[in-house]
Amino acid sequence: MKRAVVYARFSTDNQRYESIDAQVRACQEFAGRNDMVIVNQYVDEALTGTKDERENFQRMIQESSLGFFDVVLAHKVDRFARDEYDYHATKRLLKKSNVDIRFTAQDFGNTPESALMENVLVGMSAYYSRNLAAEVMKGMKENAYKCKYNGGYVLYGYSVTSDGTYRINEEEAAAVRHIFESYVAGQPFTTIMEWLKGRGYKTRRNRDFSIGAVREMLKNERYTGVYIFNDKTKARKPKAPIEIIRIEGGIPQIITPALFQAAVKRMEANRQAPGAHKAKRIYLLSGKVVCSHCGSSMQASNRIGGANKTYYASYRCGGRKIRGSSFCDMRGMNADALEEMVLDTLENQVFTDRNIKHMAKRLHNEYRDARGRHWDTIKALEKKLQGVENKIGNIIDAIADGYRQAGMKEKLVALESEKNALIGSIRAENVSNQLDLTQLDIEEMMHEGKGIKSKDPLEQKRIIDLYVEKIEVKKEQVDVYIYLSDSVVFSSSGERNRTADTTGMNRVL
Question: How far is residue 390's CA from residue 394's CA, in Å, rounded to a whole number?
């Protein structure tokens, strides 16, 4: 019997019946039907699935490595996560601890379609979230073109009026001017911070200014009167210039452009460049590449070599790294060539109109069958509920007729409890069937993969995580396996470090 834990989450936008209790009951019913025993529960309340900072969720991941449980049960994919990156990263962490994930309302078994159906449901949740975010962004952009406040924290040195326009907060602006003037004059951060602290200046969070806070102010061009919107991602990474709304003179000016440029110039001069090779590289295939010789995962690796200190990115056998070349003599694979090969495969052989329609049809058939199984479960639960209600009615009738027997009250309480649990399970199953995906819905979501080679690396990795099952590296060949394909989609031969092209690819979908 497998040991299972329940993960349940309640958010402020929750459906009426998707309470914590309903999710837990659904997991208990599922465990009973699948020879599992529940040994613990992890519950997070009023938190969104797009964030992975959930306290008990993180505790569950940490404790998965202790060997206390074998399976994580959750009601639906969107209770577990709505962000594909976190979902796949979490799944890999659990897999390293030999822990599986099962979704009670979206359990598709172990068919060839099940793995991709799970991925598609994750992708579909994120797809809907992105569409909603796009609609919200339209309104925010309209505000931005009018140089209006768009929510979030107000930049230090400014206040916002009742109609959403910016005005200078003169008390704070004095501190901003001093920071820029002092820094350009050559004063160190510590001296500037002491001046601010001595005069009682605090950040928006009522804390003393740190070096990081002062440095961020010095890099903020808005103080020159430029209105800037949508310049950073949620992870505080710069966005592409085409996505940024930038309007000169859109807000009041606190410092001159010349003073700002002087501060930037000093920061550039003081920065000790760490070297381009230390910049973070996104490895598109991490967690997917396998060494065919020893079966180990091939891990992302970078090194500096040669007289010119050239930067090399590669995927190297983890078994060889840990146990030496006597255990495995597989050489590393050039990361750029391998990633290009996989991207070519996806763009030219997987995400064609014909193959998208083919995959969507298979997935929709599996989804339709799964919904049918849910209706069978509901009918069985309703039949059991009817039996419990009959027993309750018999006891009530007996009491009404004056019949008394020891233990009748306790039996009635137990039956009422069983009745409530069954009602909760039926409601949970009904919720899972409210989403009626059509084949066109699935096709539309899959079309996000078209043109993958022109997308940014994070988007490329998201799509690869969804559709690529594994990449098996052999000494003279690389095989790419795609979910829902009947065999290897692409097999290369010859020099593995060459620049990949599409010559000789055979479509097998």
Answer: 6
Q: Report d(CA 396, CA 280) in Å as an integer.
A: 70
- Which H/E stretch holds residue 507? none
Looking at domain 2-129, its CATH superfamily turns out to be: Resolvase, N-terminal catalytic domain (3.40.50.1390)
CA distances from 346 to 85, 235, 356, 446, 448 (A): 19, 27, 11, 12, 12
Cross-strand partners of 316: 299
The CATH class that applies to domain 151-270 reads alpha beta
Q: What is the per-residue pLDDT across 428-470, written as a single tens digit (0 to 9) for each?
A: 666 555 556 788 888 888 888 899 998 888 889 988 988 888 8
- 109's tokens: 């078994």
Which residues, in sequence order, are CB contacts of 36 under 8 Å at separation 6+? Answer: 1, 2, 3, 4, 30, 71, 73
Digit-coded pLDDT (tens) for 238-252? 888 888 899 999 999
Predicted TM-score (pTM) above 0.85: no
Q: Kindly calculate the radius of gyration of the chain based on its CA atoms and give it in whole angstroms.
A: 29
- Closest-CA residue to 252 (of 172, 317, 136): 172
Compute the half-sphere exposure of residue 419: CA atoms within 13 Å on the CB side of its CA.
14
Written as six digits, the tokens of 203 are 């950040």
Residues of the chain with CATH 3.40.50.1390: 2-129
d(CA 18, CA 8): 10
Residue 109 to residue 454: CA distance in whole angstroms: 35
Phi-psi region of 7 (alpha: psi -120 to 50; beta: other; left: phi over 0): beta
